[in-house]
Amino acid sequence: MTQEEKGRNEGIIATEQLVACFLKPSERAKAAAKEYGAPLDARTLKKHGLREAVGQVCDAVHRNEEKMNHLFTSLDALKAAHWVLTLADCRQSAREMSLDLGLLSDGGRAEDAPGR
Fold first, then answer.
1. Taking the model in full, what pTM does it have?
2. Contact 16, 49 (CB under 8 A)
3. In the 3-class helix/strand/coil scheme, how is the chain assigned residue by residue?
4. C-alpha 116 chain-centroid distance
5. Which of 58, 69, 70, 91 has the least C-beta neighbours within 10 A?
């Protein structure tokens, strides 16, 4: 197995573990989710998709690493949650940059962009 294949397999396993945290959370994760008010359940995953569901859970604990460990009970699931959050943050940054560039190319100012 090549390094690329190994990395791909690790990513798949981590993602499966993350999804499993929503579909069948451990008793520890259920108790933590209830305590923190985090929507760690299949309904949230189905309604919002993985990226948004992970974001909601992590936002409920203010992305506190210790609390995230209580919710995503395997190291692989926690790694995948971080990947999802990082990708979501990158997408948001790219969206904002695109708005700025669009305004600049139209003769506007970046400071006038929505949310600035």
1. 0.70
2. no
3. CCHHHHHHHHHHHHHHHHHHHHHCCCHHHHHHHHHHCCCCCHHHHHHHHHHHHHHHHHHHCCCCHHHHHHHCCCHHHHHHHHHHHHHHHHHHHHHHHHHHHHHHHCCCCHHHCCCC
4. 24
5. 91
